[in-house]
Hints:
eight-stranded parallel beta barrel, binds 1,3-dihydroxyacetonephosphate
Amino acid sequence: MSRKKIIAGNWKMNMTPSQAVELVNTLKPLVETEDADVVFCVPAIDIIPVIEAAKGSNIQVGAENMYYEDKGAYTGEISPAMLTDVGVKYVVLGHSERREYFAETNETVNKKMLKAFEYGITPIMCCGESLEQREQGVTMDFIRQQVKVGFLNVTVEQAKTAVIAYEPIWAIGTGKTATTEQAQEVCKAIRECIAEIYDEATAEAIRIQYGGSVNAVTAPELFAQPDIDGGLVGGAALKPDFGKIVNWK
Ligand code: 13P
């Protein structure tokens, strides 16, 4: 079975709404492809203008975070219904920056995963080790825990549609991409972990991205690996280079 690639930009806390519209207009003709799903995950305030600007293109729009309650007294949070109401299809959950700066845990990520599925939003669940963990030799122990807790109570049918982004923390924003071998090795192990939790068919269906200093030069080799189904791209998603990454073949 062949999985369709999914190449997503994570804009992080960049681009005002007017800059966002300009960027979408620049990138729209560059990211055209039939071979991959193309997703722009953008700051909450940019979602509506980006959806408007992306109309008629192949760009799908995602959020960078979401809360796990339906609604209520949660000042500053964005609910899943707010996202689906304007046409959001994806949400990044558990990015390492949110785990580090905003107290996201495997448990809150799991609650958000369940909520996203309930609303028909596809989660892009991030996992990945720190440099210290890699040096201690506990990379896969740590990632397996992130994946196993993140997917608690997620049904087999839901899991098949999920996206996992493997992002080694030491490779994010550092210009230091993991080697192709390192990225493939961990993405394969994540797929095996999914097979253990569910079954082979689910492991075959789920899409696993690599993220961490992906650029137009490193993307082709990474995306050609058997267990790497695309990328989650930070810095390079804000530049015309993103068009080359999307059209990596
Ligand atoms: P960079 O591509 O800037 O390293 O960011 C990766 C990332 O964190 C995407 O979510």
